[in-house]
Amino acid sequence: MDCNEILTDDELACFQEIFSQAADGLRTSTSNEPQHHLTVMTEIPQMVAKVLGQAKLTLLAEISHYKLWFPLTLQVDALGQFTPILGIPEVLELQGKERSWRLTNVTDVTITVDGEPQALQVRSLSSSGIAIQLPNAAAAERLMASRNVEMWLPEIGALQLDFEPVRYDSCQLAARIHAVGKEREALRQFIFQRHRREFAHLYQNIG
Question: For the segment 46-67, what is each residue's pLDDT rounded down to a tens digit?
């Protein structure tokens, strides 16, 4: 799809100026440091569109072997000037099969079922899926049968979850996460914050 089918000449000029400056700032000084690239996209891959909601434009930032898809909107001030507003990105990892990045060092996420904290260990978490270690089959049955499951995230708070079980094996449950609106953005924010913390060296030249 040609960008001109969606963007006006003024909008295109605005993006060219803003992101050419941003790209200059992201270029690294030595070959030993990670290379970064920025691209404005009007077509959003299906797997990303599911978690970015109604976004029509995205800014794609490629950092080492990760892709950050930022939902992008434009605001117009009283003088008719365009201001790009970046949302919370979806982080994809490119090693092996391209998929949403999974946080695996999870020690401070709590799950409650029907208002009661459970002795469940979150083994991995992404914006679209979760793997949970359960103490026994009864705990798995209760989790899957409940309509009132919440996940508590540090600095974020409690999120109401809709689980779609995919696999249960050796007391480990893998499930898809369905979240909408503010809860979907809150989960994506948590994942992005942890990615920045874990790979701080990749973000040094981004600001």
Answer: 656 555 555 567 778 888 889 8
Length of the chain: 207
Question: ∠157-163-167 over CA atoms, to 5°?
Answer: 130
**Structural domain count, the chain:** 2
Q: Of 71, 101, 131, which residue is a domain's last?
A: 101
Q: Is the pLDDT of residue 171 over 50?
A: yes
CA nearest to 173, candidates 128, 124, 126, 114: 124
Range of the domain at 121: 110-187
124, part of any domain: yes
Q: How far apart are CA 71 and CA 77, in angstroms?
A: 20
Dist. CA 161–CA 184, nearest whole Å: 10
Domain boundary among 54, 73, 101: 101
pLDDT digits (tens, 9 = 90+) for 130-160: 999 988 888 888 888 877 788 999 988 999 8
Task: Indicate if the pLDDT at residue 73 is higher than 50.
Answer: yes
Does any domain span residue 64?
yes
Question: What is the phi/psi pair of residue 27, to 5°?
Answer: -70, 135
The 3-state DSSP class for residue 17 equals: helix
Q: For all residues of the chain together, what is the average pLDDT?
A: 76
Give the H or E element holding residue 196.
helix 181-198
Element (H, E) at 93: strand 90-93
What pLDDT is stored for residue 72 in this prediction? 76
Q: Tell me, yes or no, whether 194 lies in a domain.
A: no
